[in-house]
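Bit of a strange request maybe. I'm writing a small parser for structure token strings and I need a real example to test against, not something I typed by hand. Could someone generate the tokens for this chain?
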Amino acid sequence: MPETHLQSLYLGAFTNSDSLAILCSKEGTIQAISQTLAEFLRVESSAIIGQQLLVSQTSEAPNLEWLTEATQHQKQWLVTGRISVLGNFSGFEKVSSFFVKKLTVDNEIVGYQLKLEKANALQTTLPQNAWLQLFDDSPDGIALFDESLKIISTNSAFKKLTGLHDTAIATVAIDDVVTIAGSFSDWLSSAETLAVQGTLKGNLGVQTSISIRVTPFDIGNHMYFWCFIADLSHATKLQQKLNATLSHFKTLFENNRDGIALTNVQGNYIEANQQFATMLGFDRDYIIGRHFAYFNAKHSFELTAKEMQQFVDSGFIEPFEKQLQRADGSITNVSVQLFPHYDDEDTYSGAWCIYHPISAEEEKYRRQKKRFEMLLEKSIDAIAYSSFEGIIEVANQAFCDMVQRTSAELVGMSYKEITPAHDIQREESIFRDQLLARGYSDVYSKDFELPDGRLVPVSIRTVLIRSESGHPEGVWSISRSNEQRDRLVDSLAESERRFRSLFSNSFDAIALWSPKDEIQYANRAYLELIGYSQEELRDLDYRKFTPAGWEEVDALMAKQVAERGYSDIVEKEVLSKNGRRIPISIRASGMKDSAGNIIGSWVIIRDISDYRNTFKELEHSQNLLRQTSRMSRVGGWELNIEKQEFTFTEETYRILSIPSSYSLTVKSISKVLDPHSESMIVQKVKEAFISDTHQEVELKLSGFEPERWIRVSAQTGYETGNNKKYLYGAVQDITDFKQKEKTLEFDKNIYQQLAFHDPLTKLPNRLLLSDRFEQTTSQAMRDKKVVALIVIDLDNFKQINDEYGHPAGDALLKELAQRFVSNVRKNDTVSRLGGDEFIIIARLDNPNDIDAFAQKILLGLSEPVKWQDHSFNSSASMGVALYPKHGEDFDTLYNRADKALYWRKHHEKNGYTLADQSESS
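Reply from user aminoacidic:
Good idea to test on real output. This should exercise your parser:
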């Protein structure tokens, strides 16, 4: 490889380094910086390259003296100081030290590499005494020595390891107490990594195995070295303690009564104790490697993905209950507690799962507890529990709503804080004594104080809870707000006033009779109807003004009132005081006391004389209209604009399939139509009313299967003698017509399906494919995209078809057709031309996308196809032509793709070939 290429590779590796690094010439000119340093300084690399690198090792101005002194040092050394460049870029002030490495060729310095260290904020703020304390308290032995290897200073741990005292240290060199293989001085000057194992000549001649690490630094043109010594025998003791701890953990793990298992981040078990295996009835080896969900019972509770992510982020999740399915198919209930597991880099790597089996007794207790909690939370009564001293510990939602505070606010609060002063003394003196004497209080009234100062009147009862030793422990309170009761009392008084007004001024005759046929009340209309005064009625019963012949009707009404509390509406006659027979409609309704006994009967009477006359006049006309409407299947309607209420003919009720008792308000009738038809009729009715024009619309009724359709006409009319508008029209059942119309449309769709689609796979055929090709290429030309025309031939279809018959071949074609469709985008087209030949037209962003697209199609065919008791493995060969590269019309692209397919089939099946690849080979 040429030298220039090697240099480019090395420079690329340097600039992409994760280090904060600078490469400079031996004169100090910056040649390159790492991308990490550029991002750290927030500058472009080109702005730094070529600048002169300056270093300040003291508070003096930056200079280039470090370059002239560099030859005095070994290959790599640490420099404490500040870096700057002539360009005065900010960011270097965050650097407090850096390592310098010489770059040499044939032992001649050609440049330097600097690896920068970020300034340690703690180092710049701690006083010198604090650093000395950290140095002296270190568990490792630390010594400072100079270039002559003479020890200058040590910490307490070093003195303890060597047995040296301050007076002896002044005359000792580092290699007097430390022994390594070879000369310590030679190792220090030539080693690339200043870390090695050796022995320490300790007190009383004891040899101690140690690890040695040396860090050089330069102060005032002199080299100094920190030497860190770790006692390896101490590490061995720690390892022994660790092994003992692990042994204890393993004993606890294996002998725990709960099932314990460890999952990895994917949820697969990587460890499980024997108790968990016994709990499931499987061997431990069978459990390891399987996903935890494999052992879940059907419909068992499981954490959602969101809950699991919260556990990973926070390291905590509330215990939950689930069901596991044992090897024998039985179900076991468990409670689960999860604990996070972290790797050596403190990264989440799985979860410890502790499974506690729930016994039948414990399950019974849990159900009872759940029922109690549900009763407490769902109760419409306000319930709270407090200590005997009055500190609230539990409050249900009804209590929180009543006092307008949250549960978090109430728990820990004293009852006195929400009770006005005038109730506190009464509660503590009277009702507290009742609690202690009999365990519960009378129901009494009090007030609770809301946060805004308003008072809520309530009825309350308290119940005392004692400990096992009989001492008062806590108090349950059950409260109900009296606000609603007070409102009901006021509402009742208002209702009574309204009733009296309605009773006195009603157009209907209303009276109350006692069971002894004595009049209790009678309104004005009743007195005017029969011609008697209130005083005269007191001496009469209702039989005195009932003509002969109506006894059976009266008896039936009395029986109905006694049995069900009210009578049917019946028509009969009454005799007025002047002897005139008056036709009436009447209904009786029993009035009961609190015990359910009938203490009187209300009767409501309406004079129907005018109605009888009008009815006779209209009866003939209505019969004629009814017969005509039924024969033509046309109904009529009228809309009162002011009341927003319809009037229907009998045939209209039948057409709409609603009873005659159905509400005829606009809102109710709109529910008969489906939502789209509802908006259409509103628009047409408005248009007819505003423009005085005749309107017609076809509407669909709601809730019918098969569908029901009607045609509605609408036009305006005017009431006689004034200009008040109303709307009227006709309703016609057109379901049969719509069904015939729908049948014709269906036949048309069937024809189009047969004409443009393959009958077996339902994919587009050649006729529809050409149209899809034109659409796709036109859109691709506008968007500057590429279109791929892919011709596909199944590799082993004939073999399967010959061996298993046409049903197997047809099943294979239909299944693979669906796989082609599922592996392309919505706007792409999959077509079957016949036999086992398919074509795909797909739009791509660029020609390079064809490989991923084709591999996805092939991968979709790799899964076996199941048919009856057989399993078929199938693959395909594909020829590909690209628009506009290989042609701009369908026939050209198809021919070139077909030739590429032919080449692929005769060279290497189960793959694809581009048109130009097959033509050039």
